[in-house]
Write a structure and sequence with these properties.
1023 residues, alpha+beta, seven-stranded antiparallel sheet, five-stranded antiparallel sheet, 30 helices, 24 strands
Length: 1023
Amino acid sequence: MKSKTQLMATLGLIFITFLAAIQYAFLQNVPDSVSTFSFVCITNLIGLLTLGAVRFKKLVGISKKTLFKGVVLALELTGFNFFLFLGSQHLDSVIISSVVSLYFIFITPLLLLLRKKVNFFSAIATVIAIIALLLMFGADTDALFSSVDVIYLVLADLFFAAYVVSVSIFGEDEDSTSLTLSQMIFASIFAFVGWCVENLVTHRSFDLPANADFWISALFIGICIRAIYGIVQISSQKYVSALKASLIFSAEIIITLLMNPIMSKILNISYTPINFFQVVGGVLLVIATLMVDEVIMSKLGYEDVSEQEVIGPEGEKIHRTSVAKKMVFSILTFSLVTLVVSTATFLTAIHFIRNNAVDNSRTLGEEASSISSEALRQKLEESILSQAADKTLLAEQKLEAYSDSVKFAAAYASALYRNPDGYAKREVPAPQAENGGKWTMQRTLARVGTYNGILVEQSELLGNMVDVFAPIIENNDNIATIYMGTEEGLMVSYDMDSDSAVELESYEYRDSSWYLQAKDADGYIFTDPYQDGYGRGLTITCAAPFTDAEGNFAGVIGMDILMDELNSSMVNDGIVDPGKATLIDNEGNYIAGQNVDPLSKNMGNIFDPDKDPVLRSVGAEILERKNGVVQVDTGDDAKYIAFDTIDSTDWTLCILSPVSVVIGPVIAIRDNINSKTGNVVDSVTSGVLNVIQACLMLSALILIFVTLLTGRYSKRISDPLKQLEGDVRQISGGNLELRTKVETNDEIGSLANSFNLMTDSLQKYISDLKEVTAKEERIASELSVATNIQASMLPTNFKEFLDDKKFDLFATMKPAKEVGGDFYDYFMIDSDHLALVMADVSGKGVPAALFMVIAKTLIKNRALLGGSPSEVLAYANEQLCEGNEAELFVTVWMAIIDVKTGKGIAANAGHEHPAIRRAGGQWELVVYRHSPAVATMEGLKFREHEFEIYPGDSLYVYTDGVPEATDKNDELYGTDRMLEALNRNPDAMPAELLSNVKASMDVFVGEEDQFDDITMMGVKWNV
């Protein structure tokens, strides 16, 4: 019955997964203008009305507890629906389904927070799911992580993961319909409140679209997703865990891949065909979710990867991790980390190569565009500079033609003066009105009434100039008049203005600038431009001097040239708008130009504030440099001014050409280059993304393969171990007849054989152990007796010994083993002499203890016979050397003190230096030369030294077990720490004094074992 219920629950989850998969197609019919909360609210109300109408009784009888659960579920569901709607309006259904399917990666963290059981393979499943998502996005991480829609869908995943977990927790003891109605009531309320707030903030109205597509989508979502999906999920998840539910929901991506083209045709919406990598990504998403299911993974060999709780030997609970889990965890962790790191490294390198290639392509395109633009700019500079030079050359040529004509006329005049008899007499008449408009010769006097004598002769001679003037006029249309003035005051002209000159009685031309300039000139001159007196416009005069027969200055030939021709042919011809040419003189005055009126009396100066600001800004540089190119402004707004100087007049021709004249071709070239660059970038990007997708797919397949392989091999290793563990438990339980049957050709098989051999040996050992145990018990008993015997040999009757004595004495001996080689002794030789002995036998254990007994007995017996310490030690040395095959020796400090006077004699046979404290002072070592140790060789003599002890003095002697005690770092305790311990309470009684030293040693040594015997003796003199 239970399995049938679980089957029906599973089928129910599969059904609602189908509904969820096709909902994304309906969501694409919702216009962008529709408010997010409005759509969520409308669909919730439709679902609530649908379910409430069918199950009205359930709606009325909802309990408070169910309402509270409904609030939690409604918050989670509203968050999910809100972000799902936000993220699904601009993405393809396959992409939406892929991202939404990732919600299961949030299940494990949520279960961990709730201290629920989680799956061991969640990390691997998460990595595979992320790879699948990258494949869905064509490995374009920039598009993935920069898409706000993806962020919305990930937030929706988080809410849905919380919803799935909550449904599993809340739905166990609840009526499915009541809980669904409860969540839908509050989901509608929350959505409506959000709708109101949204409209208040964005100033929207509550209007909704009236088109059929919107309401069809709203009805489908409301009925199928809000109502049916909700009640089926809550009903089914009672019998299916959250993790298994996520496994079923993962099939959504496969359904979406299959149904997307069908739904697109049904709903008449756009459909983006899926590619191979997207199909692989969908399959990987399903595989990732399958890994979360423990039943499926157990069939792959992962049976013993969870932590187990076992009972320890003392009944305590122990959490045990199996070998299989450790092995699987190690292999998979290493594989996962290695694969992730290597893949990330590779992808980073590929991404770098891609970015580098793209950047280089774009840079190349930009550089090509920039180079082309710069080349055109340079071409423009060269062009306008060449144009300025050409026009200047043209002007020079035209002016040169005028100057040549004037110079020819001057030469002809000089020839007339040199040979006046060689020419006919042709008198030049005075101006006559009827000659107006005709080219004719006429005379003008510098002074009235001077036409006689020499001037008449000059007139008759200079009338021959018509032979020169007429051809010049015929070949130059732009000449207003040509004339000559003599130094004697006669002016002869060839012009069309006879009618205007009739009333002109005289003209003192000899004061005019053209005459004076030419008179002083070496060749010819051009005057500055001026307005012609006859209203013919701007004019310049070209003049040249001529000489008489003696070569003296005789007069000037002049030619008035109208500027119209220069303005049209030399300045403006060939200048295409928006370019323009301007001719200025050496002071910046306008002579000609596109915007210059040649009839204006004042044409202005380039530095005038109301004139061209561009030319004004660089006017000083132009006048100073004479020729070149200057730039005004920068970028596409830049303007170039090319200028060149006409040498004969010192005028400057300026040609202004905006960069805009080349911008059109530059933009066309740049657009073409950018288009080509874009194609290259797209090609590189496409190729790189294909490589990345193949790499990601390969990484996922390797990870899946390693996971499958690890499960199989972990089972091969763990199964024999588990069998071996069971056999060993039986053997340890006392079944020594059992032999394990594990037979593998590896260390586990060797271990099983070893256990069998161990069992055989154990049986034999047990029988042998009985005999050995009996022997050891006997030896232990004997050692215990020996310990007691040795302890009883050392005097401990301190209170009895000190009766009626004028000193205090206390000693201790702690052997490192059961018996030791140290000993101390104190006894009265007679009523006045006290003997003190402190000795240390080389070696430890029983041999040292036996040697100690002999040495102690020899020393005491000899001392009681009388004699000094050296004599006693010499006797003991001789006796101990005999038959000392073990080559043992003993270090001895011995002193004999007269108790009445405090005078004493001491001998030190290789022993530690004693410490002494004088009354009121500090403890210090008594250092003097030692004698060799006793029993090292026969015939030894032992040094003695005398000392005296006074009332209040104390004496402390010890064996090397005190300063040579070591801590865990093998550092020695040393005599400095010993003296420090003695001086903590220097006036203490001997028993307390020894206790202080022992306490200091214990702190220093800590938990380390005692290495040597420790023996100490303290004496305080009170006499």
